[in-house]
């Protein structure tokens, strides 16, 4: 049962991530034109990395099956910035675990 719940949560997280990316993909240029202080290399680089995070176009490692040598598995890189939803979720989960351990020592 727990495995099923984890898979369902992972699916919802992926959907949320795709929705968030689509907002930036569709509206980033218009947003920058209205809020010119965001039209800088610093923000542009972070947004572009976020949009490419976890996609083969952003780079990947390639693993080949050691048994048959034919099957190839590509593992896309993530950019691990605070603007990356995958990294942000892990960062928040780690932070909550640390705070919970401090507030409830011996319970976790």
The ordered string of helix (H) and strand (E) elements is: HHEEH
- Total strands: 2
What's the total helix number? 3
User: Approximately how much helix is present in the residues?
Assistant: 55-70%
Overall morphology: flat
Mean pLDDT, as a whole number? 81
Strand content is 5-15%
Rg computed from alpha carbons, rounded to a whole number of angstroms: 18 Å
The SS-based structural class is: mainly alpha
Tell me the count of domains.
Answer: 1
Strand order of the largest sheet: 1-2
The major beta sheet can be summarized as: 2 strands, antiparallel
Low-confidence stretches: none
Intertermini distance: 22 Å
What this model shows, in words?
The longest helix has 33 residues. Helix content is 59%, strand content 9%. It contains three helices and two strands, in the order H-H-E-E-H. Strand 1 and strand 2 form a beta hairpin. It has one domain. The protein is flat and about 50 Å long. By secondary structure, the protein is mainly alpha-helical. It has a two-stranded antiparallel sheet with strand order 1-2.
């Amino acid at each position: 049962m727990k495995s099923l719940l984890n898979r369902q949560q992972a699916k919802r997280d992926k959907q949320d991530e795709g929705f968030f990316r689509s907002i930036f993909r569709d509206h980033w240029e218009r947003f920058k034109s209205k809020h010119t202080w965001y039209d800088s290399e610093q923000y542009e680089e972070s947004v572009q990395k976020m949009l490419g995070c976890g996609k083969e176009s952003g780079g990947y490692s390639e693993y080949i099956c050691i048994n048959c040598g034919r099957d190839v598995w590509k593992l896309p890189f993530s950019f691990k910035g605070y603007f990356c939803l995958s990294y942000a979720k892990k960062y928040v989960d780690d932070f909550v675990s640390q705070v919970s351990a401090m507030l409830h020592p011996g319970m976790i």
